[in-house]
Write a structure and sequence with these properties.
Blueprint lengths: L14 E14 L2 E14 L3 E5 L6 H8 L7 E6 L2 E2 L5 H11 E4 L11 H10 L6 H14 L15 H13 L5 E5 L7 H18 L2 E6 L2 H4 L4 E6 L2 E4 L1
Amino acid sequence: MAGAAVEPAKARPRTLIHARGVAKSYQTGDGEVESLRPLEFEVGEGEFVSVVGPSGCGKSTLLNLLGAIDKPTDGQILIAGENLLNKNDSAVTQFRREKLGFIFQFFNLLSTLTAAENVSLPLDLDPKLKELERRQRVAAILERVNMGHRADFYPAQLSGGEMQRIAIARALVHQPQIILADEPTGNLDTENGQSILELLSTLAQEEGQTILMATHSEEAAQYAHRVIRMRDGQIQHD
């Protein structure tokens, strides 16, 4: 009797993000506070990773370091083999503009701009992009998040779920390699939150984008391919 066919092992994705001994501390009136203790991990291309833990465990600090919004006190962060700490301010700004998309819990939409104008902001920074292409890309991504019918609405005219979809469209419109999402469903009801998580999962699976999502929700974390658990500035389990 012939043995059962053995499925070939899946190739491990190429490492895109590598944190080496990354730590972060802050000076306060009472002395030094450790926000992150030295930690190390890797994230491969196309992975959807949840970083889970209670408030104050260091999740947001970690995302800010990976997004070059802040600098570590110690250690290295390599993105596609490049050390962010070796880049000057201009190069870091260009890196964020070209490679990263940020999704924030509180949306951070500009109240004086329409949904389409908010989404267009990352493209407005690219002088090589023609106006027609800008409008086409904005329209396409708004349709992708089911918000094309709200393009001319202002944030005050949108629900929480709709604002988060606009924030996601803004993070995706320049086609970033890495998406950093900080509690993206924290202000949403169950239905809207689930819709956002399904969209993020689809982006990783079908578009090959690498996603790191900080969340305190165990339910939200299960949409990811992998879960990193943090407590007191340390990785407890990966």
